[in-house]
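Hi there. Long-time user, first ticket. I'm pasting a complex I've been working with (about 717 residues overall). I'd like to know whether the download I got is complete or cut off, because the file seemed smaller than I expected. Thanks.
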Amino acid sequence: MNEEALEAVGDYRYGFHDPENATIRFDKGLSEQVVRDISELKNEPQWMTDIRVKAYRHFEERAMPDWGNCNLLESINFENVTYFLRSSNQTEKNWDDVPDDIKNTFNRLGIPEAEQKWLGGVTAQYESEAVYHSIREDLEEQGVIFLDMDTGLKTHPELVKKFFGTVVPHSDNKFSALNTAVWSGGSFIYVPKGVEVEMPVQAYFRINAKNMGQFERTLIIADEGSTIHYVEGCTAPSYSTDSLHSAVVELIAMEGAKIRYSTVQNWSNNVYNLVTKRAVAHKNATVEWVDGNIGSKLTMKYPSVLLKGEGAHAEVISVAYAGEGQHQDAGAKVHHLAPNTTSNILSKSISKNGGRSSYRGMLQVMPKATGCRSKVVCDALILDDSSRSDTYPTMEIGNATADLEHEASVSKVSSDQLFYLMSRGLPEEEAMGLIVNGFFEPFTRELPMEYAVELNKLLELEMEGSIG
Amino acid sequence: MAMNIEMLRVESLHVSVEGTPIIKGLNLTINKGEIHVVMGRNGAGKSTLANVVMGHPAYEITKGAIFFQERPLEELAVFERARAGMFLSFQYPAVIPGVQVGTFLKKSVASVREEPPKGRAFRKELNEAMGQLEMDKSFLSRYVNDGFSGGEKKRLEILQMILLKPTLALLDETDSGLDIDALRIVSKGINQIAPQAGCLIITHYQRLLDHVKPHFVHAMIDGAIVKTGGPELALELEERGYDWLDAPA
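Hi, the file is complete. Here it is re-exported in full:
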């Protein structure tokens, strides 16, 4: 990357970009024809084309959400988005076969290295589709299916048809409709009964082109008694014009299964990140969302769990860092539909340099769901007077047997904390970085170690040059 | 006798907090190897003295100057003072949630020392220091001062002091709230660094001085040192209080 590019990128380390060598690029803008073209290009079965078209029509009619950051939402120009861009003709199983510039990008992001060290499988998506995909042989032998979503649809149409859109229907919201209409890429995972996948599998999403729209679709099914840990990372170049990332993620945890889904989203500050993530947990199943939001211009994302079976458990840890020009509207939703279900929600947010973070939460206990327990903790840390933090918690409790706890705090870094650390030899920025790392510690300790180290470095970087 | 090596010199110092004068014309010189004790009523300005020397931003020097090893301190930011060899044991050490003691100590030692500590050598040094202060290893994985008892906080302060090997140690009521055993242990730490450093000990009680032998005891009243003596002054102050030193109305 040349000096000029470096300067333009500023503090954001992943803001570099490659030349755009598209093999297929659709013209900007959205229409029913674009939706049909995507489906045709992918040789999809008719039923998928029909779902897409139906979703597109719903998207056209559906109003924007009237909550969240309405001004920013209204500023999205759907006509200025590229809805499909193929950068490589196939998904490779060997990094050597991936086109050089794309391979170099993933090398710089450390993906092949991480794969060798600690991952059970990797999907690397570049623009609209996966360019690389692999899974460890031993997992394959145990019957674990880990594919990019397009391949999943081709090779396991019956499974996809059975579950696609069952957790997040296209009509859920405007952006789930958009995703269902133009989805491309994402992960498809099926873990057979009783199989415990010990090493995490990872998907990495990279947007490279300007004004790109990335609409990956992920479906994870953990059959009875199985476990899986899925990790996703996201980055994009810094451009002065906006990109749109609107994913849908559906998780299904069958009886006694456990799914952990970890995200560190570090989109550049020109990306709208509007994502619907929802899980269903059947009897005695556990779903954990570990959701970190560091990048993007506007994020609206509330990982949800429907506790459908008795004894199911939900765990949501959501952290957000909102710096200059960023609004992180994040949170969690848990719906207790069955008796004796339990949930924990921990939300931590930091606002700095005029950034805004919002916690938006929903906790619902249905009248029939007796004996439920839930604990919600929201902590916000505001680093200066120009920044903002809001909390929008909603609770709908349908019976009197529920045992609920809710704690919320908003704090500022005290001058005594800074002075204490500085008196031990740390310059102010480093002291601030350490306090911030400590604040996020309940989140980072849940990440795989390599990710935690990376995240801490990232946060320290965010603190640099920021204190007058 | 060896020449005096000046560690701290406070000259006609006046300090205000939010516009209210707290220290009003204080003079004090501490040489290497000297232990100075400052006693006085609550509100006399003792903690202000320790904090202003270390550079707390809430304290404003309105007149006078402070020198560390003959260098004016106004030139040095707080972290540079630490790197130059100054150390403050806090009366109320700050809680840093989520930051483990081990991580914090390593960062701090790496910041202060010219040569960053090597992994194994540092662990050995750390083990020895903790053993000496009768601190359990589990301290290292706890969060800095989070949920610590008063005694645990003070031990952690002394542990840091031993690791950072300051040439000027400011101890602000490090003995308050300690039981006899903890007091003995903390005193051991002070005596260990004292020969190579100048020490300023702020205390309300004579009992610390059963373990640490001061060269000078200063009585501080209303922002100034009004009387200086040897160890016997500490006894006298504890017995008689401070009224006899008040300026006649």
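A couple of notes from our side: The mean pLDDT of chain B is 93. The CA atoms of residues 154 and 174 of chain B lie 6 Å apart.
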